[in-house]
Structure formats: C-alpha cells, structure tokens
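Dear colleague,

Following up on yesterday's call, I've attached the two folding results inline so they're easy to grep. Please treat them as preliminary; we haven't cross-checked anything against experimental data yet. The first protein's sequence and structure tokens come first.
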Amino acid sequence: MAARAGGRLTFDALKKFVADRAKSPGYESIFDQLKVVSGGDGNCSCELVVSPKMLNDFGTLHGGVTASLVDAVSTYALTTTGSGRPGSSVDLNISYLRPVKVNEVITISARTLSCGRTIAFSCVDITKTNTGQLVAQGRHSKFVGEPKTSGSSTSS
C-alpha cells in the first residue's frame, strides 16, 4: 500500500507509484524513463528524454504520446490531493505548440486546479527542459466520485 500523509500520496510513494505504472503492460510502459522531479499538494513535475519509440513519421514527438503524458502526469498530480482515487477521464484537451525531436528532454508539469466531490480539473504544461519553451499545454477533467453499483436504480 502506498504511503499517505493526510490521505495524500507522499513524494516517495508518488515516485514508486509512477515507477510501478511504467512497469505495467499498459500504455504507461512507454514512459519507462519518466523521472518524477517533484510532487505533492496536487502538483507533479516529471522529466523525460524523448526516445525513438515516441516519434511520429516526421521524426518529432507524436501527439498521442503528448496526450498520454498529459493524462498520466495530471493523474499523478491528482493522487497527491487526498481525493483517494485517480478517477476516470471525462475530457482531455491538448494544444500542440512546438515540435520536440528525439533525445530532447521535456518537463511535464501538472497542477490540480480543483478537486470536488465528483469532478477534478487539472492543467499541464510541457516544456523543453533546456530552454523552457512551451511545446504543449493540456487540460484534463476527471470523474473522481464513487461509481454507481450495478444494483442501484433510479425512480422517475
């Protein structure tokens, strides 16, 4: 079980959580070199060297990989809020501003804007680590409420 402080994932637990996710057979395995730089209080910042497996046909970072980074790192930030659940995506929006080439290092900085009873909102900036140039910006909304049980019914 992950170490928690006041219901929030601690920084060390966050690093372990991210490392474990990268070892999973799911989509996050592409981020096996993702390094958590900081995290806590609804924030998470990671660095990643863009590898050849992350490129599109033009030799730059694939938009789908960028979207996955926004999804994943904003979820990591959410785990540090004390909501207790990583949630399920209900909306994901990405603005692609500049290309990123192989071997460039990027910083992915996620901030939880609000975490209510049922919905959480976050924003993510992806920058070139060496220049600080913004290359993509994302917004992510997640359902964090309790899922309905199969036995529940509604009356009209």
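Below is the second protein, in the same order (sequence, then structure):
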Amino acid sequence: MQRSRKLPVVLTDEEVERLLVQVNPKSPTGLRNRAMLAAMLGAGLRVSEVVALMPADIDLERGMIRINSGKGGKDRVVPVDSETLAWLRAWAEKRKALGLNARKPFFCGIRGGRTGRVVRERGERLRVRYVQKLVRRLAEAAGIEKKVTPHVLRHTYATRLLRRGFDLREVQELLGHAQVVTTQIYTHVDPEALRRKMQADQEQEAEKIARALLEKLPPDVVKALARLASRSD
C-alpha cells in the first residue's frame, strides 16, 4: 500500500521578508547567516549542502554554485539570481578580510572557543544543527506560525521556480531530485499557479473549439462575423 505524502510547507513572499529582516548583516556573523539564507532561498540548497560548501564550489563571476555529491551522490550546478549572488560576494569579501582561507568551508565558524567540553576552532565547519536552530529562531522572532526548517526554505525556492514558469524537469535538475515524481509534489502547493494554468488551458481549448466551428461555416458567414467583431472593437 502506497503511503500518502504530505504537502511541503512553503513560505509566502511576505513571510520570507519577515524572516530575512531578523538578520543584522552588519556584523560578520549576521552577514554570514544572511548569505546562508540566500543560498537556501535563492539556490534551493539542502542544509547538508550549505555547510559542506567550499569557496571553490562557488563561481562568483558567473553566479553558479556547484554541489559535489549531493543527496544520492548526484552532482549538479545551480545558477543564482543577482540578489543571492550579491550576498555571496559580500560574505566572500568579509571572510577574506577575516583571514579565512580557501581551505576552510565557505560558511564556517568565525570565532573559536569552548562550549562545555567541546573546543571549536576558528574556521571550523558549521554543524547542521546550528543552521536548523538558526532558521527556527529567526522564524519565531518573525512571528511565523509555521514550523520553519531549512528544508522549508528549499520548498519555497522550488515553488517560486514553478511560479516563474520553470517546467518540472528544470526544477528537478536544479533541486537534484533523482526522480521527477519527487518534484511533482510542488505543483500542488501553489493553488494560485494551478488556477492560472487551468484558466490558460481553458482559454486555449475554447479557442480551439471556436476555430473548429469557424472552419465548418460557409465563407460568407465567416466574413459577416468578422465584420461584426471589428465593429464591436
């Protein structure tokens, strides 16, 4: 028996704005975190992919991110928009000024120190748990009632792509899904997009029927109808 799949949680544009304004990019940590959010919202990266990113994986000239061995061992290249690229460039400049070299993860710890018995070095890879807690804390501060996780940001990215007219195969490639059926669930998330598509399909069908009817009418009747239509315009 096939298990039913729950629809993914996505954020509205207004909720995204409320989430992002909770981050103060004036501090190094804030700028890093804002760039991380941009990578998830603007490139659809999984949290595990975000913390694993290396500086060499990001082409800041062309605006491309290379994901090496994503989920299922699948590599992919994801283009980013100008806003996302601007945040990535800003953080790249800041991490360089902080003396963090190319051998350190792109998004890494800025300060070393001890937490209980755990000693962390400067430039250490961020933990997935840290990013999860960060996203949850920002969502709570923004007053968003949904349960917001890094994967919700990925869901939001996918839904935005479909809304902008990307087809399922394109979205599948950008998300790194092995099967298009995994991507199809996003088509059920945006009712407004579905309504627009249904309306467009209905209009196309109506035009097709009208053309078929006109082809069956005598030429003089078609000309008369055309004259009436031009007068009404």
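For the second protein, one point worth flagging: The two ends are 58 Å apart (CA to CA).

Best wishes,
A.L.
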